[in-house]
Design goal:
Elements (H helix, E strand, L loop, with lengths): L2 H10 L3 E5 L2 E5 L2 H13 L1 H31 L4 H20 L4 H9 L5
Antiparallel strand pairs: 1-2
Amino acid sequence: MNAISLLALANQNNVRITAKNGKLIIKGENQAVQIILATLREHKEIILSYLKQYQQETAYRDMYQERAAQYEYEAKMPQNEAERLAYQETLTSFIENIHPLTHAQFEKIIFQPIMH
């Protein structure tokens, strides 16, 4: 089973699953939870991985939308300029989280003379 079908199974049984600190948080009526608990335990890592990815995607989407709105409405920028700046900031944050170099380390790598 994949994560989406596991979460759909939980939803069909009125069971809600979230993740916190590497653990599944399972809420629902005791009888409903007991019906699917063994399956959820068996596929715990798949569910945790999916929920972590979903949370990260949601965080980046929210960051982009919030920044674009701030630039457009608070800074009174044209929409396309606000969205461009928000995109750049969100992409920078994404890259820093994937490969957390400091700004100085990044510049050293980029601007280092090429050795022949």
